[in-house]
Design brief:
Elements: E1 3-10, E2 16-25, E3 31-35, E4 42-43, E5 48-49, E6 51-52, E7 60-72, E8 78-82, E9 92-93, E10 114-117, H1 118-127, H2 137-140, E11 159-160, E12 175-176, E13 182-189, E14 204-212, E15 221-230, E16 236-247, E17 255-260, E18 265-270, E19 281-286, E20 293-297, H3 310-317, E21 366-377, E22 382-392, H4 397-416, E23 439-441, E24 448-452, E25 456-462, E26 468-476, E27 479-482, E28 488-496, E29 499-507
């Protein structure tokens, strides 16, 4: 494992420089390069592939991976953010403001990548209150809270709140909430700068937890939880999210791709049936949502080539080629008579099914994209997507395709067995007031109540999803608070001398 930082030129409409941090997640047989530049499994410092399997072999399965987002506003205009190869092309580091403007506040550019291991957490749970114990930096630096003064959500990365006060404090036993034996947390947004794709920004904040297990069952896999938050005030219709990957199974110019609808997995494999060293196959599985479309396209332009406009990206996510025609069954998926959402949806092990192999395509450098669709995506709504990346090299190229398809089914079963999806983690739960000097009366209240606290303090009230809904600064002693908040439970934060004192208020009219 290693963590390193570099300064890179950001090729956007506005000239700027970004500081990016890279981290190699290596908890099992996979070495996965992660960064805060919007790209996954790609080292933008060296323009090199970053998903090595097995770790240390020098053989890579993925050159670059990114996520696309798009929808139509009430006027039918397309909003889009789609990341492919350029650092901070459409997605940028850090969170947005929560007041509906979805602005990029000062300080967001300082967000980095946040790794932590289960071993560190377990040791912290056991020893945090022991004399001589030093809390690891990975636990201390966990991005549990944003700066409310900058308009950012108070609650960011999920954590286990052992003392129930709603504030992340590892010295009181709190610790990061993760999955796997090692995890990396990354926060991105689509509003910090112009979009390389030319797309009109949406106002989304995207949280990723990328994690691995070191058990033998999942030693060849990496998992991703993606939480998309609409920080703006507009509702987007036919909202689409997609996972894009430029796969390189060993070499870059000898691959085929395909899709298996039953197990919701897009996969890449070596197109040379003669075998050789690069016989592995890799698959990306949608764990919690059924795919809307699967596409592959050439690096060049044209009717079936790389997207060049925001409309092209959005159409690809809806099974439409850049020339405006629908995907069709058979051949290269263009110009046929029967529409389809999924290109090359057959198993290449079955000659009668539609695959790149049965279509007699020439192996080459492949990109692939799997999308998902929601009817709408409204203000402050959260959408969650989970993925697994599985890999196999036990047989020849076609045997490994079948192995990857089977592993995809196993990954879905593994995900479904977890009763609490990670995306549901992190909800603020206040069980007690930790400061006897702080009192709120009456509680419950109709929105008008008195806060009693000694000295001068600032007061913020947040919804349980972390949005600032009321603030009143420079208070002294007993203060009357008069709000028009809707019924519900809210977090009250008093700030005094750089310390935060939390409590709760229940509003009931």
């Amino acid at each position: 494992m290693k963590l390193y930082t570099t300064i890179l030129f950001s090729a956007l409409g506005v000239v700027s420089f970004g500081q990016y941090t890279f981290y190699d997640l290596e908890q099992n047989n996979i070495s996965a390069t992660l960064s805060n530049d919007g790209l996954f499994f790609h080292n933008s410092e060296t323009s090199s592939a970053g998903y090595e399997a097995p770790a240390g072999s020098g053989t890579h399965m993925i050159y670059s991976m990114g996520f696309w987002f798009g929808g139509e506003d009430v006027n039918g205009s397309t909003k889009l953010a789609a990341q492919t190869y350029t650092p901070e092309g459409d997605l940028f580091t850090g969170p947005l403001t929560t007041d509906g403007t979805a602005e990029y506040p000062s300080g967001s550019e300082e967000y980095t990548v946040y790794p932590v291991t289960k071993a560190e957490i377990d040791n912290h749970i056991e020893n945090y209150d022991e004399i001589g114990y030093t809390t690891p930096e990975n636990i201390l630096n966990w991005p549990a809270h944003g700066d409310v003064a900058e308009g950012v959500s108070f609650n960011l990365a999920p954590f286990v709140d052992t003392d129930g006060d709603g504030v992340y404090d590892p010295t009181h036993g709190d610790y990061p909430k993760i999955k796997g034996d090692e995890a990396v947390y990354i926060i991105l947004n689509d509003k910090a700068d112009l979009h390389e794709t030319g797309g009109d920004p949406i106002g989304i904040e995207v949280h990723y937890l990328v994690y691995q297990y070191n058990s033998s069952d999942w030693e060849d896999a990496t998992f991703i939880n993606m939480k998309v938050i609409n920080r703006g005030t507009q509702t987007l219709f036919n909202f689409r999210a997609a996972c894009f990957a430029d796969i390189d199974v060993g070499l870059a110019d000898n691959d085929f791709v395909g899709f298996n609808e039953e197990n919701n997995v897009m996969f890449g494999y070596n197109g040379n049936t003669g075998g050789g060293d690069d016989v592995a196959a890799v698959g990306i599985v949608g764990l919690n949502k059924d795919a809307r479309a699967f596409a592959t396209y050439a690096a060049s332009g044209g009717a079936t080539g790389a997207p060049s406009t925001s409309t092209d990206y959005y159409n690809y996510m809806g099974a439409i080629w850049p020339d405006g025609t629908s995907f069709t069954e058979g051949g290269i998926g263009h110009g046929g008579t029967e529409n389809t959402n999924f290109l090359y949806s057959g198993n290449p092990n079955s000659p009668e099914e539609w695959s790149e192999l049965s279509a007699e395509n020439v192996p080459g450098d492949r990109r692939m994209m799997m999308s998902f669709e929601e009817e709408s995506f409204g203000p402050f709504q959260i959408l969650c997507y989970d993925f697994a990346i599985v890999y196999n090299e036990d047989g020849d190229n076609l045997e490994n395709v079948q192995n990857v398809i089977d592993l995809a089914g196993d990954a879905i079963d593994f995900y479904d067995a977890d009763p609490v999806p990670y995306c549901m983690s992190g909800t603020v739960s206040i069980e007690k007031e930790t400061q006897s000097e702080l009192s709120i009366m009456p509680n419950p209240s109709n929105g008008n109540f008195k806060v009693n606290f000694e000295g001068q303090y600032d007061l913020n009230i947040l919804s349980l999803d972390g949005r600032l809904v009321y603030e009143q600064n420079n208070n002294t002693g007993s203060t009357i608070i008069d709000t028009d908040l809707a019924d519900g439970t809210y977090l009250v934060l008093l700030k005094q001398n750089e310390k935060v004192y939390p409590s709760k208020i229940v509003i009931r009219h």
